[in-house]
Amino acid sequence: METLTVRSKRDIINYVNSHPSGSRRARILAFVALGGIFIDAYDFTSLGFGVDSLQKELSLSAFQLGTVTAIMAFGALIGALFGGYLVERVGRYKLFTIDLFLFVVAALGAALSPNLGWLLFFRFCLGVGVGLDMPASLSFVAEFTNSRDKGKYVNFWQMMWYCATVCTGLVALVMFLAGAGGELWRWAVGFGAVPALVVLALRFRYADESPMWAAHHLGLSEAGRILQKNYDVRVEVEPSEEESMRPSRIRFGAIFQPGYRARTALASIISGLQSMEYYAVGFYLPTISALILGKGLLYAILGTTVINLFGILGGGTQAFLTRRLGVWRLAVIGCSVAAASLVVAGTTRGSISVYLEGLLLGIFILAHSFGQGSQGKTMAAMSYPTEFRGVGTGWAEAMSRVGSMLGFYVFPLVLAAAGLSHTILYLAAIPLIMLIFLLVIRWEPVGKESEVEGGLTSTPGRPEAVTPGE
């Protein structure tokens, strides 16, 4: 067993960033942390399959239905803004363990809601849990993996998301075939408590605090203990440095200071617009599938599940290409293909077979998950030092929820006014806008040392970012 002598928090950071691959336990920890993303995706998309039965049972108007779907995004916005602070204050481990209790209670409460008021309350609580979990999970993964693999592991969150959407479709299908009927939405939403309990048990079994956060807030001895437990290394801490440790002050404005403004702007824009893009199309895939296939709820569920398989393919592929291409190029490729697929889908609607229409939507989902769908939040998780990484990821998550609220409301309104073909065509403007901002702000965090003030140190062979205004 190797021995590591720790004299400062920089020794902790350098060891994590340079360790060849981490222990098997460290890799397990990364995926256990991303298990929260699975819960996030399930809870956000499960209601989409039972939205018709929900509207009939509670006699909801179009505005009330829009509020039910958007209230969770509003809760996530609040949770993300506070989560960025709390993840720095109490740590990554405590926050992403505690919020799972909220997932369990809120999922069951929403499923058993007797009226609209209680449903809105519990869906809001679910959203708060999502907003708390995202910055904690992504910060944890970024701080438990080495520099070489950091982008890959953080970017796995997108594949995890689409694995959840496919599982949501399969769960809804089983419940539909079992005769859930008018209560399909209750069963689908309530089942979210099951994976939440599984992930909670795994986090209790495997999870630990981020060694980088511990080095800043709990002292070198505790950070060394975490390394010893998870990296199979003997840590010796010099007491003189331990006595001088002081917790870092949490700075909300740090992500907007010179040296960080452009990357914060780009991460905010990509996070917000990709979310609007996804929730205008992805959340309403059951509705779109039904309009294309025209064969009822069963085919809507099947069509949505098959289309979301493209998301797993795109999300899984981009994770392994992150180190080679970087998140900026991935986002550029994704936006370009997504815009093209929406333009073709909008202009050919009704003149090609339904299978080709479905394929075009699948290509859109693939491009989204391969590119912009993942890169905004990944960019935030990799662009800031440990002292305010949680604030940065929390802000990106908040911008994502602003976009999702817009997507929830915009799609049904535009669909009612313009029809499906024109709606899909109009939505192509969103990836095009993202592409313009990407070409203006060329920030690439992969290969950069984020723990340096300004994060401008690059690894050999990778060019520095061009960031206007910095």
C-alpha-based Rg, rounded:
22 Å
Unreliably modeled segments: 454-470
Care to count the β-strands?
4
Biggest sheet: strands side by side, in what order?
A: 1-2
- Mean pLDDT, all residues: 82
- Name the CATH homologous superfamily: MFS general substrate transporter like domains
The CATH architecture category equals Up-down Bundle
Using the coordinates above, name the CATH class.
Answer: Mainly Alpha
| Tally of alpha and pi helices | 19
Q: What would you call the shape? A: globular
Number of domains: 1
Topology:
Elements lengths: L2 E4 L2 H10 L5 H26 L1 H8 L3 H28 L2 H20 L4 H27 L7 H28 L6 H7 L2 H14 L4 H7 L2 H12 L2 E4 L1 H5 L17 H21 L3 H9 L3 H52 L5 H17 L1 H11 L6 H39 L1 H12 L7 E2 L7 E2 L12
Parallel strand pairs: 1-2
Antiparallel strand pairs: 3-4
Helix pairs in contact: 1-10, 2-5, 2-6, 2-7, 2-8, 2-9, 4-6, 4-18, 5-6, 5-8, 5-9, 6-17, 6-18, 7-15, 7-17, 10-11, 13-17, 13-18, 13-19, 14-15, 15-16, 15-17, 15-18, 15-19, 17-18
What features would you describe in this structure?
Helix 1 runs antiparallel to helix 10, helix 5 runs antiparallel to helix 8 (184-190) and helix 10 (211-217) runs antiparallel to helix 11 (220-231). This protein has helices at residues 9-18, 24-49, 51-58, 62-89, 92-111, 116-142, 150-177, 184-190, 193-206, 211-217, 220-231, 239-243, 261-281, 285-293, 297-348, 354-370, 372-382, 389-427, 429-440, and strands spanning 3-6, 234-237, 448-449, 457-458. The protein has one domain (3-245, 255-458): Up-down Bundle (Growth Hormone, Chain: A), CATH 1.20.1250. The radius of gyration is 22 Å and the shape is globular. The model is unreliable at 454-470 (pLDDT under 50). With 470 residues, it is mainly alpha-helical. Strand 3 (448-449) and strand 4 (457-458) form a beta hairpin. The strands form 2 sheets. A two-stranded parallel ribbon has the order 1-2. A two-stranded antiparallel ribbon has the order 3-4. The chain is 75% helix and 3% strand.
